[in-house]
Amino acid sequence: MTHKYETSNNVKGWKMMLTQNTGANKETDRKFKAYKRIANESKQLALALDEQYKAQVEEMKLRNSKNEKQCSQHQKGLAQSQKEKLQNGGYAEYANMVTSIFNSEHLNNDHGSK
Fold first, then answer.
1. Is there a domain that residue 106 lies in?
2. Can you tell me the distance from the alpha carbon of 27 to that of 9, in angstroms, rounded to the nearest whole number?
3. Overall number of domains in the chain
4. Containing domain of residue 78, as a range?
5. pLDDT tens, 22-80?
6. Which residues are registered as beta bridge partners of 8?
7. pTM for this structure?
8. Rounded Cα distance, 21 and 28, in Å
């Protein structure tokens, strides 16, 4: 008569009760084992993704610092170039060149249309 029954204690702190053996407990145990496996796999995936994310963040920090250094060097070079052009009259020479190109184009166009 007792072969039809098994004990099940799903809630800690409660006394065990005899319930009819329907196989539901075994199915529940199987499901919870599967849930534990899924949870462990999810945890491992989360840890792997976290490591990958941290590595990518470090790589981006290195790229940003490299770009900032190049930008700073380029700005210093531009400032130096501007200073030299102001001292040597480089802007006046550039303006004269642009004016002469403009005049030569207009002179050519005026003679070509006549």
1. no
2. 15
3. 1
4. 24-87
5. 777 788 889 999 999 999 999 999 999 999 999 999 999 999 999 999 999 999 998 98
6. 17
7. 0.47
8. 13
